[in-house]
Amino acid sequence: MSTVRHDEGANGHETVGETPPTQEVPREVRRVAIAVIVGLVAPILDTTIVTIALDALSRDLHATVSTVQWVSTGYLLALAVAVPLAGWAATRFGSRAAWTGGLVLFLAGSVMCAASWNIDSLIAFRVIQGFGAGLIMPLMTSILVAASGGVALGRLVAMVSLPTALGPILGPVVGGIILNWLDWRWLFLVNVPLCIAALILARRIPADRSSAAPLDILGLLLLAPGLAALLLGLSNAHNGIGQMDVIVPVAAGVVLTAAFTWHALRRNGVALVNVGELRRRSVSVSSLGLCFFGIASFGAMFLMPLYFQQIRGDTVLQAALVLIPQGVGALATRSLAGRFTDTIGARWVAVTGFAVVAAATLPFALAGDHTNTVWLMVVLLVRGFGLGTLLSPLMSAGFIGLPGSARHDVSMLNRTFQQVGGSFGTALLAVVLTAGMGAGTGFHDAFWWAAGLAAVGAAASLLLPDGRAAV
């Protein structure tokens, strides 16, 4: 079975092995999971909550839409830069201290965003927000593995992945509701009580040992700008993949990340992120699956609000409300996904989830401006069922048979692949959408691509461990 625990292997190193699926999540571990959930809500919600407010920000701050787009882009780039540092910070200062530091930084950035006086200050403060979020998000799984010893990891991941699964879906919904009654500053002020509650609950996270881990400065100088350049190029792809503002940063990002990979492999596991962990099949396939999850969640969520507003003529609030069933579906299946992951293994849970997402995306490829709204809401509910099943098997599979010392590295790799997948999916679907606009087939083509990519994710998930053997 795929439920895992920490064992002492023959070499004396702590590893993650198998446990009977009947074990329940201990009460103290549930308390840690609740603290992690509360801490994740605001940073993940903020990845998409601003996307629906771009028009309001452009109008109120007297800036062009292309400039306002940097409110989202700057956040995501800063998040990507901070992700590789999270593992080092957790090793150097301890997971609880790194988690708390990220929350404080995110809270400060949120308050400053609400106080912004022009578009430049808002973008700068969003970068601070994003850096704090980048320290928080990758530590989620490693904190759980350390606190639980791997017991019922599938169910634990299902619990704490709730914000990760619902954030991209509900971000535009929450943003639309806030903007309907309040101004854009409340998009950031809503984070304040959430962050304060998360800081209070952070005391539940075990204070693990810190060590004098040296910072891999060369690795940081290669990987951080490499990821930022890659994501920047992908975010510009909506103007066409042949543009210099796409080619140059993507090429630079590929070169820098390749150089980091070479550097990390030469350092035999003491680099900023130990990419050698990708040699484990469970880790590499888990990371690949999370890349496709990023495409399925962030990529498609780029399309859907636009479809309802541009093709069907819905207002921002109407479009936000129509998307609610997808979040309800994701919420409904997450617990079952965790339990099935613990009992039958990650492989078939993930394959089923991706297959449902692919099937429930196809109706949008065939829909028009007069397609029944209730029917589309039912389709979104089913699509949410699929999305809700994915994170638990994909994230927990990467920790089967893993040495305890490697949990930070695998958490960083998982988060990076998910982030790149989201950016790649958004960029690709934006290019397909733009290319088909002249012929009037943009949305149809883009949704066909989205369904096809989810199907590829299902095929890739066949390579996941079946839960009967450690990797």
TrEMBL record:
Spans annotated as Disordered: 1-24
Sequence ranges assigned to domain Major facilitator superfamily (MFS) profile in this UniProt record: 32-469
Keyword Transport: yes
Matching PROSITE patterns: MFS (PS50850)
Keywords in alphabetical order: Cell membrane, Membrane, Transmembrane, Transmembrane helix, Transport
Entry's localization field: Cell membrane
Signal among keywords: no
GO CC terms, sorted: plasma membrane
UniProt feature, compositional bias: Basic and acidic residues: 1-11
InterPro entries on file: EmrB-like, MFS, MFS_dom, MFS_trans_sf
Gene Ontology molecular function, alphabetical: transmembrane transporter activity
Recorded topology in the membrane: Multi-pass membrane protein
TM ranges: 32-54, 74-90, 97-117, 123-144, 156-178, 184-202, 214-234, 246-265, 285-304, 316-336, 348-368, 374-400, 420-440, 446-464
Family matches, as Pfam families: MFS_1 (PF07690)
Predominant location category: membrane
Family under the similarity heading: Belongs to the major facilitator superfamily. EmrB family.
Protein name: Multidrug efflux MFS transporter
Natural source organism: Gordonia polyisoprenivorans
